[in-house]
Design brief:
Shape: globular
Bound molecules: zinc ion
Oligomer: single chain
Strand content: 5-15%
Strand order of the largest sheet: 1-2
Order of helices and strands: EEHHH
Distance between the termini: 6 Å
Largest sheet: 2 strands, antiparallel
Radius of gyration: 12 Å
Number of strands: 2
Number of helices: 3
Helix content: 55-70%
Structural class: mainly alpha
């Protein structure tokens, strides 16, 4: 298991996600982001706005995603 926080994944808080793969942790972060979005949490709304401008550019999005994947892969594994 590796850990990354919401903030490390482009979010806005220190909530920690744990997963064995980057795909898994990206999914957890997405679900959390959707929940915060539904609650109208201002810091997450601002973070999402930034992310959505990134998503308008597929190349920038892919680069961001790959950068995060490398960050995840570089983390020491913890039980
Ligand atoms: Zn968060």
């Amino acid at each position: 298991m590796k850990r990354m926080t919401c903030r490390q994944l482009g979010g806005a808080c220190e909530m920690e996600f744990r997963a064995n793969s980057f795909e898994e942790i990206a999914e957890l972060s997405k679900q959390h982001g959707m929940e915060m979005f539904q609650q109208g949490d201002p810091p997450h709304l601002a973070a999402m706005e930034q992310m959505s401008s990134l998503m308008g550019d597929p190349n920038a999005m892919r680069e961001w995603f790959e950068g995060k994947r490398q960050e995840f892969e570089a983390l020491p594994g913890a039980e």
